[in-house]
């Protein structure tokens, strides 16, 4: 039986960041659908331009005075500039994974109760991937 693991990190401000392991049972390593379908918008304080953030400013576009987004995702439906590989193929990944913005850190393949995230299921289907199964309860 394959055991899917999400590593949940609770931040000081109570946000939950999700990391997925670099292992064969990580469905994200053969997907990338979320990186090609959503606009990745976030607070400009996450940018690496001196405000203490880590998201490389050269990979972003300005949305307004307070928000930025990852280049390529400005209008949704196109791949993020940091995506490497072919969506739906093994080995896909993020070139800035440790420095990715909060929307990417907060998007989970599974909900807290172990059921697949409906938005993940929707974008997986859009690129022809099978739906994820529910995670077994620990």
Write the layout of secondary structure elements.
Blueprint lengths: L6 E4 L5 E4 L14 H4 L3 E3 L16 E3 L4 E4 L12 E2 L8 E2 L7 H5 L11 H9 L12
Antiparallel strand pairs: 1-2, 3-5, 4-5, 6-7
Brief summary of the model shown:
The protein contains 3 helices and 7 strands. It has helices spanning 34-37, 102-106, 118-126; strands spanning 7-10, 16-19, 41-43, 60-62, 67-70, 83-84, 93-94. Strand 4 (60-62) and strand 5 form a beta hairpin.
What is the averaged pLDDT score?
Answer: 86
Task: State the helicity in percent bands.
Answer: 10-25%
- SS strand fraction: 15-25%
The geometry reads as globular
Strand element count: 7
Tally of domains: 1
Cross-sheet strand order for the largest sheet: 3-5-4
Identify the notable features of this structure and list them briefly.
138 residues; 3 helices; alpha+beta; globular; two-stranded antiparallel sheet
What does this structure look like?
- The chain is an alpha+beta fold and 138 residues long.
- The protein has one domain (7-127).
- It contains three helices and seven strands.
- The protein has a three-stranded antiparallel β-sheet with strand order 3-5-4, with no helix packed on it.
- The model has no long low-confidence stretch (mean pLDDT 86).
């Amino acid at each position: 039986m394959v055991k899917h693991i999400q590593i949940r990190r609770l931040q000081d401000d109570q946000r939950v960041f999700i990391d997925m392991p670099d292992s064969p049972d990580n469905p994200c390593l053969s997907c990338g659908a979320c990186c090609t379908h959503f606009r990745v918008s976030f607070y400009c304080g996450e940018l690496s331009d001196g405000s203490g953030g880590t998201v490389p400013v050269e990979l972003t576009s300005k949305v307004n005075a307070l928000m930025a987004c990852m280049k390529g995702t400005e209008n949704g439906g196109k791949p993020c500039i940091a995506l490497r590989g072919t969506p739906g193929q093994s080995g896909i990944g993020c070139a800035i994974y440790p420095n990715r913005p909060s929307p990417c850190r907060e998007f989970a393949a599974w909900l807290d109760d172990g059921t697949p995230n409906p938005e993940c299921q929707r974008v997986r289907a859009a690129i022809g991937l099978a739906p994820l199964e529910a995670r077994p309860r620990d």
